[in-house]
Amino acid sequence: MPKKIWEGCVQRLYDAFWSLLEEKPYAQISVSELLARADVSRGDFYYHYRNLSDLAKDAVEAEAKNWDDLTSLFLNFEESDIEVASDQICYYMTSICRQNSVKAQRLSVLISPHGSMDLVEAFREGFKDYIVKYRNIDLEKFSDMQKILFEGVVGFATSLLVRLDLLRSLDREEIKSLSRHLAFVIYASIKSHKTDM
User: Fold this and answer.
1) Which residues contact 172 (CB under 8 A, 6 or more apart)?
2) Are the C-beta atoms of residues 9 and 46 closer than 8 Å to each other?
């Protein structure tokens, strides 16, 4: 199948997956209804995926890449910029609280009764892989402490995105306080990384 046609097919499968996940629990979605919703043949599906779980993992990891703007807040500031970083984090958290976008809606379904821990983990891994690839991070050169700190930063970012309901429950002062704490934690991981490298 020509690459261009298959790329459109993948997007239809992803969109169908998210649409079905809004309607029913992940465990109840079948390949047959996914194919019908996406208007994709069974042969095309199985040429690229072994099962629904493989497609679901790809769809969720692809969604994680839509939040790349958050990664820059965690990896690009110095100690002297903690106040600036705190303000940036506060601004970003406030702005995502107001989002009613498709990507925000898709994240909320991951922790709804229709989602699953496997899907949340796929999102975390997708987000982590995206940070590593596009920020040119070599995890092989990290000490064990750096790896723990990096996993902590990724874990926070994932929790922040997946649990928008909790973030939205905070008032302005709570978000500002949380932002400042996060700036210090993030700086600690960056400082450790630069010191140990």
Assistant:
1) 94
2) no
- C-alpha to C-alpha distance for 113 and 170, rounded to whole angstroms: 23
pLDDT interval class at 192 (50, 70, 90): low
Full-model pTM: 0.74
Domain 3-59 part of CATH 3.30.160.20: no
Q: Which amino acid is at 116?
A: S
Token representation of residue 153: 């930063």
- The CB density around residue 1, as the number of other CB atoms within 10 Å, is 11
Per-residue pLDDT tens digits for 158-187: 777 777 788 888 898 998 998 888 888 777
CA atoms within 13 A on the CB side of 75: 21
